[in-house]
Specification:
Distance between the termini: 55 Å
CATH topology of the largest domain: Glutaredoxin
Helix content: 55-70%
Number of strands: 8
Shape: globular
Strand order of the largest sheet: 6-5-4-7
CATH class of the largest domain: Alpha Beta
Largest sheet: 4 strands, mixed
CATH architecture of the largest domain: 3-Layer(aba) Sandwich
CATH superfamily of the largest domain: Glutaredoxin
Order of helices and strands: HHHEEHHHHHHHHEHEHHEHEHEEH
Number of domains: 3
Structural class: alpha/beta
């Protein structure tokens, strides 16, 4: 019932409003009818309504994502990829906060939203909604506390609420998971840089080091915003668990999906595996793949590392769109397609929600600690050399 919003509707946000309202009425009537005929319990009906809310929000965010894709085209010039805006009005629409106000009809404090199949992807879309990211990108040279305040302000505006809702806190919890490793390694990275620049006076180097916000300073700021007890406990447990990890890498558990990773290690003996978890419905995933094509062609020449691309589709054969994309952008690379259920199991195995996500596996098939894992392609050589030095 939500498909017209996900893929089919190409009108303006203003034209979309009556369509959204009609679909929402139809969905709620459908839930009432089925709940009555199937004798739903009160909780079952609440779950159905929560899932309708989540799918509704997902569809709205999908609409803007596809609208943005239609407004631009990626080209290559002198070996570099660049984006050409085809329709500036469409592109601008995806960044206007007022166009996202339809999300306000979601009960953003409903805890049942956290236990549904598409919760992870929806939170990912909400966290990276263009109006939110526009505000975040404008606050680059500020403290983490100020960035966090700006993020919550944007979420309150988009969801039309005066409170930091559960959904907003869930987005910030995910941002904490995403940023944790970089916070943890900031001082070590600066010391590495400092060692390569002996011309920097000790007094200046020490002053800069002292000014760097590390995980010990940033984490309490995030934790204080998690007023929902579940997220507060989860965040504290995550921090304690991560800070207690001292080993560089750990063995994979004896679970079925770990066998897939072991088979890949066996296929590429002696190589460090960099696994890129991605999906056709993820714009940032495709952007990272397309922008790194030239770099990956150089990585492919190495004998110490292998890139693996794992995507989730309805079937292991993949959709026609998936096959076409792989042929265009991932030809001659190691691609693995699993069904969505198995992709969810891989998410559970490696404990991640959003994509793109990267995991690093050692030649002896051990999983590298998060803060030392390769985190993408933008700083690949440095991160790989840092890891190899730690593994010696």
């Amino acid at each position: 019932m939500f498909r017209p919003l996900h893929h089919d509707f190409i009108g303006t946000p203003t034209e979309m409003r009556p369509v959204v309202e009609q679909i929402r009425r139809d969905v709620l009537l459908c839930i009432d009818s089925i709940a009555h005929s199937e004798h739903f319990t009160s909780l079952e009906k609440q779950l159905a309504q929560a899932e309708a809310d989540l799918e509704f929000g997902y569809a709205i965010l999908d609409y803007f994502m596809y609208r943005e894709h239609r407004s631009m085209k990626q080209n290559i010039r002198d070996g570099e990829y660049y984006t050409e805006i085809l329709d500036s009005i469409e592109e601008k629409d995806t960044r206007q906060m007022e166009n996202y106000m339809l999300l306000q009809c979601i009960n953003a404090d409903n805890p049942l939203l956290l236990c549904l199949e598409h919760t992870g992807p929806f939170i990912n879309r909400l966290q990276y909604a263009r109006p939110v990211q526009a505000i975040m990108n404008a606050n680059q040279n500020v403290t983490e506390a100020e960035k966090l305040q700006g993020f919550y302000t944007a979420m309150r505006t988009m969801l039309r609420t005066e409170q930091n809702t559960l959904l907003a806190q869930a987005c910030c919890y995910r941002a904490m998971l995403d940023g944790f490793n970089s916070w943890r390694s900031r001082r070590d990275n600066f010391l590495t840089w400092l060692a390569k620049h002996p011309e920097v006076p000790d007094s200046i180097g020490q002053k800069r080091l002292t000014a760097i916000e590390g995980v010990e300073e940033i984490f309490p700021t995030y934790l204080a915003t998690f007023t929902h007890s579940y997220l507060h406990i989860k965040a504290q447990d995550f921090y304690d668990e991560q800070m207690a990890i001292t080993e560089i890498c750990s063995p994979l558990p004896e679970v079925p999906m770990a066998d897939l990773i072991r088979s890949l290690c066996a296929k590429y003996p002696g190589k460090i595996l960099i696994i890129d978890f991605w999906g056709m419905g993820c714009g940032p995933c495709r952007g990272a793949i397309q922008q790194s094509k030239i770099l990956r062609s150089e990585i492919a020449k190495r004998d110490d590392v292998k890139l693996i691309f794992i995507a989730g589709e309805r079937t292991t054969e993949g959709s026609d769109a998936y096959k076409k994309y792989v042929t265009e952008w991932l030809a001659d690379e190691e691609t693995v397609c699993v069904n969505n259920a198995d992709f969810t199991r891989l998410q559970e195995l490696f404990q991640f929600n959003g994509i793109p996500h990267y995991e690093t596996i050692t030649p002896d098939c051990r999983c590298v600690r998060d803060d030392l894992s390769i985190s993408g392609y933008h700083n690949f050589d440095y991160e790989l050399q840092r890891l190899k030095k730690k593994l010696k």
